[in-house]
Specification:
alpha+beta; 5 helices; about 260 residues; globular; about 30% strand
């Protein structure tokens, strides 16, 4: 199935050996630069606009990959679904790529429950889903916009009837998701413009003050945060794997063929 509607392209493809289709979506934000879209997709900003999901950070591996628990709220008789993912981001000039792999079995259930409690997550029956393949690619266009491509092949552990309903709703839900992300990007751009305007005004005032008093500006000696410190994801006991050894690292050791790594 291929759908083209108002700038959104949605393509589903059957995958041999499974009833779950792979979904590829593409949309172009003609006036929004890559760094703004990437910022909108961070956990901090996504929590503001992606109302259908709640992403809880579980920690960071030594190689910089981020472990998260993402919870999707169920409806009617369908229970909530949660996904344990480990994501890695690769950034090059004009391109931001993110790949997600299933982190189930790499992260202890105790750590997951602690994260849910810390974020005041109400105790509800939750079914564990699985990310067979999930990635996104942001590419800068020639006019300064961004092409957004997402690929998703996830198992929501739904029955036949519920799976059919979900697949019928997928085009409208995908369109709404891109629309919400675009609105968030526009808000971020407005905030950046306001911050730049204030910074320019403050800079001009400081420069005028220096000229009038003939004094050399005093440098800002405030200490910078230690960005190198990371919360290391602990391994489940008895896993037999090295401490803080990322699933991405482990997969690459086995296959040596990870385009993101």
């Amino acid at each position: 199935m291929c759908i083209r509607d108002r700038g959104l392209m949605l393509h589903t493809k059957k995958v041999p050996g499974t009833v779950i289709p792979m979904v590829r979506a593409k949309c172009t934000f003609s006036t929004i630069p890559v760094h703004v879209v990437a910022k909108a997709l961070t956990l901090e900003h996504r929590a503001k606009w992606d109302k259908g999901a709640q992403s809880l950070p579980l920690g960071t591996y030594r190689d910089g990959t981020l472990a998260t628990c993402t919870i999707y709220q169920g409806a009617l008789t369908i229970d909530d679904r949660d996904f344990i993912d480990v994501s890695r981001i690769r950034t090059t000039e004009g391109v931001v790529e993110t790949v997600y792999i299933d982190g189930s079995g790499f992260i202890s259930e105790d750590l997951i429950n602690q994260a849910k409690q810390a974020h005041n997550r109400k105790k509800r029956k939750t079914v564990r889903g699985s990310s067979m393949l999930s990635c996104q690619r942001l590419t800068s266009t020639s006019n300064g916009g961004t092409n957004v491509v997402t690929i998703s092949h996830v198992d929501l552990k739904l029955g036949k009837t519920a799976r059919g309903i979900a697949q019928k709703q997928m085009p409208s839900r995908t369109r709404d998701w891109f629309k919400a992300m675009r609105e968030a990007c526009l808000t971020i751009m407005e905030e950046e413009q306001q911050a730049n305007s204030i910074g320019t005004a403050d800079g001009a005032s400081a420069e005028d003050g220096c000229r009038s008093s003939s004094l050399v500006p005093v440098p800002d000696n405030r200490s910078m945060p230690d960005t190198s410190s990371r919360a290391i994801v602990p391994r489940p006991s008895g896993s037999g794997r090295r401490e803080s050894f990322s699933p991405h690292e482990e997969r690459c050791e086995m296959c040596k063929a990870c385009s993101i790594c």
